[in-house]
Amino acid sequence: MTSSPSLREIVHLVDGKPFAGSSERTGPVFNPATGEQQAVVRFATAEDVDHVVASATAAAAAWRTSSLSTRAKVLFAARELLAQRAGEIAAAITAEHGKVLSDAAGEVQRGLEIVEFACGIPHLLKGGFSEGVSTGVDVYSIRQPLGVTAVISPFNFPSMVPLWFIPIAVACGNAVVLKPSEKDPTAAVLIAQAFLDAGLPPGVLNVVQGDKEAVDRILRHPDIRSVSFVGSTPIARYVYETGTAHGKRVQALGGAKNHMIVLPDADLDLAADAAVNAGYGSAGERCMAISALVAVDPVGDPLIAKIKERIATLRTGDGTREVDMGPLVTREHRDKVASYVAAGADQGATVEVDGRQASFDADGDGFFLGPTLIDHVTPAMSCYTDEIFGPVLSVVRVPSYEAAMELINSNPYGNGTAIFTNDGGAARRFQFEVEVGMVGINVPIPVPMAYYSFGGWKNSLFGDSHAHGLEGVHFFTRGKVVTSRWLDPSHGGINLGFPQHT
Ligand code: NAD
Fold it and tell me: Is 330 close to ligand 1, i.e. is its CB under 6 Å away?
């Protein structure tokens, strides 16, 4: 697509300034609530990426010499500016992603918590010191920045996911090249501007807009040392394989199919509330959304009745209005999600609530689908096997806890899961046995706090490091161990043997 002069144009942010780049290629940015295109976003060429990386490389060399207290001060200031501008960032997210304003504000808040964590960088980067490992010899460990790091983020959390990485990367002394989703690119620019206004030197945090062409250059650029990717599993696998083949450290967080088990002793009202909140919040476009509800006999019928009562109260519409759920991100995505409902019905499932027939509080032709509930889903159906990423809750009925566990552990994804029960022993057994990275016990969306690390298992994460927390600090630094002896004539003499400490 070529750019239209009447539409707002979203460009790159390089060296602290807007940068149009050399490409004529652009992509459309829609308002999903009205269906109208509201902006165009520039798509970087490989040469544009090279330009950004050159700026970041120069900035990284200077930034790594800044003191820890200088970096902490910038982070504290960024935290204040982001908090002041949270409303503006949330509004941009609602306008381009579609999620309701309170939900957008919630993701900005979760992102801010990572900035707060990174404010403690002087403490987080403390190394070890051993005095006198040998006579007159000391050993100490330090962690140093990587250089230029890249962050490639998905559409569904336009502020929180970039903020999983940026604060820690810059606090550790790196420069960052952020490539946000082309579907909702404005929040990334607002975040980067807040960091720059907070005193981060130009070039330390850059935004490059684009699609596969930009990603492919990032994955191969010799001066980019690491890639933090979040997105769908096929692209995550590609990013991991390509990035590591080009010598980069890569953490690539992928898709999900999150199961929530409800045991017969659970409080069914709380479980129904949780299933609705976690299934339909953000229109199901959360990597931690519950998409498979595993009802252990005999809870299926009463649980479904309670969920249906709650769905009847949900309002779907324009996220700037008093509604619970907004649209899906694009028309194509809405149609794809709807096709899974049709496929489920064709394959023998029962569509208990059909969001294709819902009505919506919005003007125009937005990308809406109402909350959908499908019962009697089996593991062979496409609405179970695929990550739908929409407001569709599939109920799988199983006879026992063991069958529920077998279902979850056979699934190729392992991002989040939850168990609802009043039996402490069952919950403890679940946390021990389940092969999933983030586990909730009577908590449906167990997103770890900033000072823990976020990440799944199996096809939900390629690479060793989870995001933020201490694993984030580890990912964005390299370890070095120094063995030191201050010269003393008594240490002289030739000895070709392997050093031993006495
Ligand atoms: P996506 O994989 O389509 O896009 C993610 C990023 O990759 C974007 O920046 C996009 O521009 C880029 N990209 C897209 N196609 C590409 C290609 N062919 N080659 C190189 N780069 C490409 O994902 P999305 O639709 O933006 O986001 C939704 C997905 O992200 C879901 O699968 C969801 O589960 C996942 N997600 C996972 C987590 C997690 O923590 N595991 C968090 C959020 C989202």
Answer: no
Ligand 1 atom 23: residue of nearest CA: 231
> Within 18-45, where are the H helices?
none
Average pLDDT of the segment spanning 255-273: 98
CA 499 to the chain's CA centroid: 46
Residues 6+ apart with CB under 8 A from 324: 100, 280, 314, 315, 316
Residue of 41, 217, 287, 389 with the most ligand 1 atoms within 8 Å of its CB, for mutation: 287
Q: List the chain domain ranges.
A: 8-254+460-481, 258-441
Output the residue whose Cα is nearest ligand 1's atom 16. Answer: 212
> What pTM was computed for the model?
0.97
Superfamily of domain 258-441: Aldehyde Dehydrogenase; Chain A, domain 2 (3.40.309.10)
Report CA(214)–ligand 1 centroid distance (Å).
Answer: 14
Angle formed by the axes of helices 424-433 and 401-410, nearest 10°: 20
- In which residue are the tokens 């009202």 written? 269
CA gap 330, 502 in Å, rounded: 68
Structural contact between residues 13 and 189, judged by C-beta atoms closer than 8 angstroms: yes
Residue 17 CA to ligand 1 center (angstroms) comes to 27
Atom of ligand 1 nearest to the CA of 231: 30
Domain topology for 8-254+460-481: Aldehyde Dehydrogenase; Chain A, domain 1 (3.40.605)
| Residue 501, SS3 per DSSP | coil
pLDDT in the model for residue 490: 73
Whether residue 2 has pLDDT greater than 60: no
Cβ-contact 33, 366 below 8 angstroms: yes
Mean pLDDT of 243-266: 98
Q: Angle 86-96/101-118 helices, nearest 10 degrees?
A: 130
3-state secondary structure 119-131: CCHHHHCCCCEEE
The secondary structure element, H or E, covering residue 60 is helix 46-63
Q: What's the rounded mean pLDDT across residues 217-223?
A: 98
- Residue-by-residue DSSP string for 242-306: HHHHTT-EEEEE----EEEEE-TTS-HHHHHHHHHHHHHGGGG-STT-EEEEEEETTSHHHHHHH
> Quick count: other Cβ atoms within 10 Å of Cβ 171?
27
Banded model confidence at residue 469, pLDDT cuts 50, 70, 90: very high
Clarify whether 287 is annotated catalytic: yes
Residue 305 CA: distances (Å) to CA of 92, 299, 373: 37, 10, 11
| Index of the ligand 1 atom closest to the CA of residue 461 | 41
Please count the CA atoms within 13 angstroms of the CA of 82 that sit on its side-chain side. Answer: 29
The catalytically annotated residue of 119, 172, 287, 383 is 287
Q: Does the pLDDT value for residue 425 go beyond 90? A: yes
How much is the average pLDDT of 281-304? 98
State the DSSP H helix or E strand holding residue 383, giving kind and residue range, or none if neither. helix 382-385
